[in-house]
Amino acid sequence: MELDHNIFFHLKFIETFMDQFRKYLYNTSLTESRDDMSEIALSVKGLTKQIRSKKIVDNVSFEVKKGEIFGLLGPNGAGKTTIIRMIVSLIKRTSGEVYISGKSLDEDFKGAMNEIGAIVENPEFYSYMTGYQNLVHYKRMSRKEIPEEKIMEVAGLVKLEGALKQKVKTYSLGMRQRLGVAQAILHSPFLLVLDEPTNGLDPQGIREFRDYLRTLAASGVSVLVSSHLLSEMELMCDRYAIIEKGKLIHIETMEETTGIQNNSLRDIIFTTDNSAMAIQAIEKQFDFAVSTMDSSRITVSAAYEDAAKINETLVKSGCKVYEIAFEKKTLEERFLELTNHGEEVENK
Amino acid sequence: MMALVQNEWMKIFARKSAWVYMLLIVAIVLVAAIFYNRIYGKDDPDWRAKIQQEIKADERLMQKDPDQYADLAQNIQRNQDYLKYNINPDAHSNWHFMNNVVIPLGSFVTLFSVIVGSANVSSEFATGTIKQLMIRPHERWKILLSKYIAVTAYSILLLAVLLVSGFVVGLIFQGAGGFHTKFIEDSLDFNNYQIKEIGPQFFLKFALYLPSLVMVSAIAFMLSTLFKSQALAVGIGIFALFITNTVGGILLFLMEKYHWVKFLIFPHLDLSVFAYQDKLAGGVTLPFSLAVLAVYYLVFMALTFWYFQKRDIAS
What fold does the segment set A266-326 form as a domain? Predict the structure, then answer.
């Protein structure tokens, strides 16, 4: 390991040196443009799947940046799975292009596929073989040189070292899921593609799974994940796209959705000893919209910074403030808003 | 490519059934040897005297009953050939065992090859592991080819088990025999016979058995790829295997009458006929049969690989 780091360090050093040299020669930085290129782990352009006259996926384009967890959201049957399967070439594209870390699936199939690790639905294994044999099987299928120790390293990461010698048929669903993660990251891919990865996992399994993804993303792996479980995706993704009836209708970041921007108004809940007194105090000072929730809680519509001022006012006027909470907009609300199902829901 | 074949080989042998089939073949050979031994007792050292007696008896009968002249004359001729070529009619050795018993047992090799070959592709679909297989940096046709190579290698292994166990079990139960020992091989209709050497005749039959193994396995492999169903692949594979054994005679009869029947695959799936005679029926020779099989083989393989290459894996 140490040796590896050393080599890496040297390479980095040489690279920097070369860049300096180039700058000197051309007075331009080539690094910048190259870095921009490698910042995109996955680029999908005009992806379309047509079966007979029906377009199941219609002209979908998006990009996944390096180290980003990108979610594909949408109701069942919207085309998420078809998009994912076209990217991992389980399903043929009618038209459109897919680039994985800059390599085109059409022009450099092997090179592009070599950078993908994937779990498509529940990871299926050869249950009559041991976990170790299964990993060896996938190790052999990679075009990268994978040392033997890497298997143990990856198994350690997903806490399966102890079970590697057992047949997969003895594994629980959670263990299989972890083995699924192990086989997907065995060859250190650039891009991890996950289709409905938490299907059938218990809450603890889901949580572990999320933690793995966070760790991986932090180490520079990009993740494309699809799910119809919005609450799950809210916790998992950095950015998401909404797919509806085969079309990509919206892309935004999770921060935009849950609304942590400073200037916009949001609902702030104050828990005090006396709601009536609190409302009186606030209305005297500000002209925020205030409403009573119950005898101890009130809702104030205000900006982020206003929370402190309101608190000050309340304390000065003799209210005991126990809790200040921001009402977050959930992904679910945003999703329904964007897919125009919000009205339907309200009408019910 | 080597790594892919290695993977498939590992998957075949990770299943107990792969070992069970090999043991079964040995067991079947053993059981066959026990029965064969019971039926064809021990060598009679005085077989020459016995045959000479038989000839004399036949000659006497001939004078008494001229109606049976033709039959008796044939019998005498045959017995004289036994004496002339020094062929013990009741001889048994491991080569006799190979020739009479091991060749028919080849059907079991076909059966097990069909089962393993069709399970190889269809089980990947049934368990969903096909998805994990196809998201790797390898062309699909190469993945399928590696499967075909591994399955074929397994068939060859089963053949080797059959041959070696047949030879060894024959040696134990029947004793060693000369490779070039002469024997009388009856024609298929028992109206005639030829004098042949036992070892070469065995290998001729064995060689003529191979095309049917290749074809039936290829049919099963194709069906399991096209329909993802092992039951269907095994069923039709076995059907193809037995239809030639059961209605083969009818097909040969039809071939005399109808020209087009000789372009069907079924009459050519059992080439063992060529070990006894030069022509199948209706002027069909071995090269013609092999050519017909080759065309079918290429069509089956092209269809299998083309379909596998283009299909969507959606479930």
Answer: Alpha-Beta Plaits (3.30.70)
